[in-house]
C-alpha cells in the first residue's frame, strides 16, 4: 500500500468537492435553514458515499457500471428526485411552511448521493487509478473511500458555516430556497436528459 498515489488522489478529491453538484445543493439548502440541518444533510450525503464505497469493495459497483441501462435508470431517477427537491424548495420559499425535519434533511442528502451515478463511477473508474497494483484492491479502495468521506465532512462543515452566514434571516433564507430550487431543477433536468 506504500505505492498508493496519495497526492494525485487528494487533488482529484478536492477538485471533485470544489465543483458544485447535487450534494452541494442539498447541503447548501439545508444550511440555509440552520447549521444543524446543513450538518445532517452533509452526514446523509457522506453516508450515501459510504454505501457506494462498500458496494465498490464487494464488487457491486463494477457490475452496475458495466450495465448502461442500470446507470441510465439510476441517472433518470436521480434527476427526477432533484427536480422534486427543487419544486419543494420553490414551494417552501413562497409559503410559511415549517422547515424540514432533522431526519428529512439527512434523508435528502442520503438519497441524492445514492442516486448519483457519478459516485458509482468515481469508485469504479477513478479510485483504482491511485492504488498499488500489487496490493489488496478492496482494502485500498476502502481506505481511499474513508479518506474521501472524511474530506467531504470537512468540506460540508465549511459550506454549512458559509451558507449559514449568507442566508441568516428569514428573507435571505427564502431567497436562498428559490436559488437552490432553481439549481436543483436545472441539475435534475440536465441529469435526466443526459441519460436519455
Structure report:
The protein is mainly α. It has one domain. The chain has 9 helices and no strands. The longest helix is centred in the C-terminal third of the chain and has 30 residues, at 137-166. The chain is globular. The N and C termini lie far apart (40 Å). The mean pLDDT is 84.
Strand-helix topology:
Blueprint: H1 6-18, H2 22-33, H3 35-58, H4 60-65, H5 68-93, H6 102-114, H7 117-126, H8 137-166, H9 170-195
Total number of distinct structural domains: 1
Taking Cα atoms only, what radius of gyration do you get, to the nearest Å?
17 Å
Q: Overall pLDDT, averaged?
A: 84
Q: In terms of structural class, how would the helical and strand content be classed?
A: mainly alpha
Shape: globular
Query: What profile does the largest beta sheet have?
Result: none
Helix and strand element order = HHHHHHHHH
Counted by DSSP, the helix tally is 9
**Uncertain regions: pLDDT < 50 for 5+ in a row?**
none
Q: Helix proportion of residues, in percent?
A: over 70%
What keyword list fits this structure?
globular, 9 helices, 196 residues, mainly alpha
Brief synopsis:
The protein is mainly α and 196 residues long.
Amino acid at each position: 500500500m506504500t505505492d498508493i498515489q496519495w497526492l494525485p488522489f487528494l487533488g482529484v478529491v478536492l477538485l471533485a468537492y470544489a465543483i458544485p453538484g447535487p450534494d452541494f445543493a442539498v447541503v447548501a439548502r439545508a444550511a440555509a435553514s440552520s447549521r444543524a440541518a446543513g450538518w445532517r444533510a452533509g452526514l446523509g450525503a457522506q453516508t450515501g458515499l459510504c454505501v457506494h464505497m462498500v458496494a465498490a469493495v464487494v464488487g457491486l459497483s463494477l457490475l452496475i457500471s458495466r450495465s448502461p441501462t442500470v446507470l441510465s435508470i439510476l441517472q433518470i431517477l436521480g434527476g427526477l428526485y432533484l427536480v422534486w427537491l427543487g419544486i419543494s424548495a420553490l414551494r417552501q420559499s413562497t409559503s410559511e411552511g415549517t422547515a424540514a425535519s432533522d431526519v428529512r434533511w439527512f434523508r435528502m442528502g442520503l438519497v441524492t448521493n445514492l442516486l448519483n451515478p457519478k459516485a458509482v463511477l468515481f469508485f469504479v473508474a477513478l479510485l483504482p487509478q491511485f492504488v498499488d497494483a500489487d496490493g489488496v484492491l478492496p482494502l485500498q479502495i476502502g481506505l481511499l473511500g474513508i479518506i474521501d468521506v472524511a474530506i467531504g465532512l470537512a468540506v460540508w462543515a465549511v459550506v454549512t458555516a458559509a451558507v449559514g452566514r449568507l442566508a441568516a434571516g428569514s428573507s435571505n433564507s427564502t431567497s436562498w430556497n428559490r436559488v437552490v430550487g432553481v439549481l436543483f431543477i436545472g441539475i435534475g433536468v440536465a441529469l435526466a436528459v443526459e441519460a436519455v
